[in-house]
Design goal:
This protein is α/β, with parallel strands linked by helices and 370 residues long. Helix content is 44%, strand content 15%. β5, α6 and β6 form a beta-alpha-beta unit. The structure holds nicotinamide-adenine-dinucleotide.
Length: 370
C-alpha cells in the first residue's frame, strides 16, 4: 500500500490522476495538496472527497513550513508533483508567477522530501515523481524525428523555461542527495476536467456558445496529442517499474496541426447536435443549433510570440522498457471529450470565473486579429 501526496491534484491532469489512482489502487491513501489557483477546481474532486477516497489540503507548494508539516503528519512514501502554473500565454503576461511555483515550489517540495525521507529514502521505496513537459525541448523542424530523453533542452517560453529549470533541480537532488526521483516529459494532454483556457475545451465551449474559435497564426502548429487517461497510466507504470533517476518521454503517437484538431471538434459538435435535438434548446447560440457548421466560427488571430511550430515525442524508450502504449486513438478520444463536456455543463459553468472572463477578453480582444 502506498501513501501518495499528489500536488496540483485539483488541476486538469492531477484530478484525472486522482480518479485513475483511486480506481486502480483503492487501498492506497491519497492526499492532495493544491493552492486552488484559478486553474484548480474542487468540483473536479468532489466525488472522491465526498466518498473519502482522497483527502484534500489547501496549500502552496512554495510554503516550506506548510509542506514540511504536511509531510510530517501524512508520512507519504510517494510524491507526484503536478502543481504548476501551466498556461504558456499567461507565462508571457506574468513570468514571475511561473518561477515562484514551477521552480521555487518544486525546490521546496524536493527539500521537504529530502528532509522527511532521510538518506535511506531509496531503500525504503520512497519516490518523488515530477511531471514535466515536452516543451522543455523547444520546437522541432517539420521532418525531424521526435524528441528523445537525450534531446538537449531548448525552452522557448517562460513556461517552458520554468519547467526546464524544475527538471534540472529534480536531477540535481537525485544526483547530489540520492533522492529517489523520476521525471516524465509528456506531450499535449486532452480529456475531461481541462480548464477552458486551453485550446480544446476553449473551442468546445465557444462552439456551444457561438463565440469565435481563435486560431493562432496559420494554425499549422503541430502537437502530439495524448489522452490524459494514457498519461495517468504511464505515470503508474513509472512508479511501479522505473528505477529512480530515470526520465521518460510520454507521447500520444498522433501528431496533428491545431487547425485540423479544431476542425474535428466542429464536426463532432455538428454531429452531436444533429443526433440530439435537445442540444439546440440548451445551446441556442451554437451555429449547429440552426443547422449551420461550427467551422464558420474559425477565425485566425495574431500568433503567440515565439510560438513553437512542432512538438513530437518519441515514446520508444518507455514502450520498450516499461511496456507503455497510448491506447486512445485521437478520433475516439476527441469524441469522448466532446461528449464529456456536453454532459458536464455544471462542471464547466462552475469553473469559469469572472477572472477567467476578463483574461479571455484581454487575450482575444478584437485588435489581436492579424
Ligand atoms: N496539460 C498539458 O497538456 C501538459 C502537458 C505536459 C506537461 N504538463 C504538466 O502537467 C502538470 C499538470 O498540468 P495541468 O494541465 O493539469 O495544469 P493545471 O493548470 O490544470 O493545474 C495546475 C494545478 O496546480 C495548482 N497549483 C498551481 N500553483 C500551485 C502552488 N503554488 N501550490 C499548490 N498548487 C498549485 C492549481 O491550483 C491547479 O490545480 C503541470 O506540471 C504541467 O506543466 C501538462
Amino acid at each position: 500500500m502506498r501513501r501518495l501526496l499528489v500536488t496540483g491534484g485539483a488541476g486538469f491532469i492531477g484530478a484525472n490522476f486522482c480518479h485513475y489512482w483511486s480506481a486502480a489502487h483503492p487501498a492506497d491513501r491519497v492526499v492532495v495538496l493544491d493552492s486552488l489557483t484559478y486553474a484548480g477546481n474542487l468540483a473536479s474532486l468532489a466525488a472522491l472527497i465526498d466518498a473519502g477516497r482522497i483527502h484534500f489540503v489547501r496549500g502552496d507548494i512554495g510554503d516550506a513550513e506548510r509542506v514540511g508539516a504536511l509531510l510530517a503528519a501524512e508520512r507519504p512514501d510517494t510524491v507526484v508533483n503536478f502543481a504548476a502554473e501551466s498556461h504558456v500565454d499567461r507565462s508571457i503576461e506574468d513570468p514571475a508567477a511561473f518561477l515562484r511555483t514551477n521552480v521555487t515550489g518544486t525546490q521546496v517540495l524536493l527539500e521537504a522530501a529530502r528532509r522527511a525521507w532521510g538518506p535511506e529514502a531509496a531503500q525504503r521505496g520512497c519516490r518523488f515523481h515530477h511531471v514535466s513537459t515536452d516543451e522543455v525541448y523547444g520546437s522541432l523542424a517539420p521532418d525531424a524525428a521526435g524528441f528523445t530523453e537525450s534531446t538537449p533542452y531548448a525552452p522557448s517560453s517562460p513556461y517552458a523555461a520554468s519547467k526546464a529549470a524544475a527538471d534540472h533541480l529534480v536531477r540535481a537532488y537525485a544526483h547530489t542527495y540520492r533522492l529517489p526521483c523520476t521525471i516524465s516529459n509528456c506531450s499535449n494532454n486532452y480529456g475531461p476536467y481541462q480548464f477552458p483556457e486551453k485550446l480544446l475545451p476553449l473551442c468546445i465551449l465557444n462552439l456551444l456558445e457561438g463565440r469565435t474559435l481563435p486560431i493562432y497564426g496559420d494554425g499549422l502548429q503541430i502537437r502530439d496529442w495524448l489522452h490524459v487517461s494514457d498519461h495517468c497510466r504511464a505515470i503508474d507504470l513509472i512508479l511501479e517499474k522505473s528505477p529512480p533517476g530515470e526520465t521518460w518521454n510520454v507521447g500520444g503517437g498522433t501528431q496533428e496541426p491545431n487547425i485540423i484538431v479544431v476542425g474535428r471538434l466542429c464536426d463532432l459538435i455538428d454531429a452531436a447536435f444533429a443526433a440530439d435535438a435537445a442540444l439546440a434548446r440548451r445551446f441556442p447560440h451554437s451555429p449547429a443549433a440552426r443547422g449551420g457548421s461550427g467551422r464558420s466560427l474559425m477565425q485566425h488571430v495574431r500568433d503567440r510570440p515565439g510560438h513553437d511550430r512542432r512538438y513530437a515525442v518519441d515514446s520508444g524508450r518507455i514502450r520498450a522498457r516499461l511496456g507503455f502504449q497510448a491506447g486512445t486513438a485521437l478520433a475516439a478520444g476527441l469524441e469522448a471529450t466532446v461528449h464529456w463536456y456536453l454532459s458536464h455543463e455544471d462542471w464547466w459553468q462552475s469553473v469559469v470565473s469572472g477572472e477567467y472572463r476578463q483574461w479571455y477578453a484581454r487575450q482575444y480582444a478584437p485588435q489581436a486579429r492579424p
